[in-house]
Amino acid sequence: MHEGAIVLIGSTGAGKSAVGEALGRLLGIPFLDSDHELAAVHGPIPELYASLGEEQFRQLEAETVASLLDGTGGTSHAVLSLGGGAVLDDGTRRLLGRATVVWLETDLATVLPRLAGGRPLFGGDVATAWQRNHELRRPLYEEVATHRIDARRGSPEALAEEIAAALNAQR
Ligand SMILES: Nc1ncnc2c1ncn2[C@@H]1O[C@H](COP(=O)(O)OP(=O)(O)OP(=O)(O)O)[C@@H](O)[C@H]1O
Ligand SMILES: O=C(O)C1=C[C@@H](O)[C@@H](O)[C@H](O)C1
Ligand SMILES: [Mg+2]
């Protein structure tokens, strides 16, 4: 199997958490999520983001990702789903250079119904804000991804199967 972590990246609502959980279950390895870890240690993301501001939030997120990646090194294996904006950090992108990084590609039509509850960073017009972030971050996802999956259709379980097959094919 794979050394270190299988990291899932992509825009908000792409399914990183849902697919990551399914992939961990499928492969029988732990599932970690940087947003879940941040929330467990520091409290709910919206409040954390509001109190810290973007710059400090990104710094804390980067430290969290680094420590989760550290914990998955050596002989242990895990699936690690990142927050949608985690790739904005240069240090995080450098660390991802050593991981298997799966980009869940999606589009606005797919995620819009999933964003109905609102996301902390998307004040005002959710669709416009999502699209802007999606376009700004696309080159960064592209830079660090070792694999790409079309996440616009298929259940989280089906997408997990697809990822497992893609990773097996390269062995
Ligand atoms: N392939 C899928 N098919 C149907 N629903 C999905 C799929 N993937 C995710 N969902 C649902 O869409 C919502 C958003 O998914 P999820 O939280 O996994 O996205 P995310 O990429 O982790 O977003 P964020 O960047 O905010 O962490 C959840 O309610 C989830 O159950
Ligand atoms: O797209 C973003 O910038 C974010 C996505 C979420 O995963 C959270 O990490 C947070 O809401 C920020
Ligand atoms: Mg998530």
UniProtKB/TrEMBL annotation:
Cofactor(s) of this protein: Mg(2+)
InterPro entries (UniProt xref): P-loop_NTPase, Shikimate/glucono_kinase, Shikimate_kinase/TSH1
Signal peptide location: none
Subcellular location, record wording: Cytoplasm
The keyword Transferase is annotated on this UniProt entry: yes
EC top class named in words: transferase
UniProt binding sites for ATP: 13-18, 119
Coiled-coil residue windows: none
Principal subcellular localisation of the protein: cytoplasm
Residues annotated as transmembrane: none
Database matches in Gene3D superfamilies: P-loop containing nucleotide triphosphate hydrolases
Cofactor note: Binds 1 Mg(2+) ion per subunit.
Entry binding sites for substrate: 35, 58, 84, 137
Swiss-Prot/TrEMBL catalytic activity: shikimate + ATP = 3-phosphoshikimate + ADP + H(+)
Source organism, top-level taxon: Bacteria
Binding site for Mg(2+): 17
Quaternary state and interactors: Monomer.
PANTHER family (UniProt xref): SHIKIMATE KINASE, SHIKIMATE KINASE 1, CHLOROPLASTIC
Protein's UniProt name: Shikimate kinase
Organism annotation: Sinomonas cellulolyticus
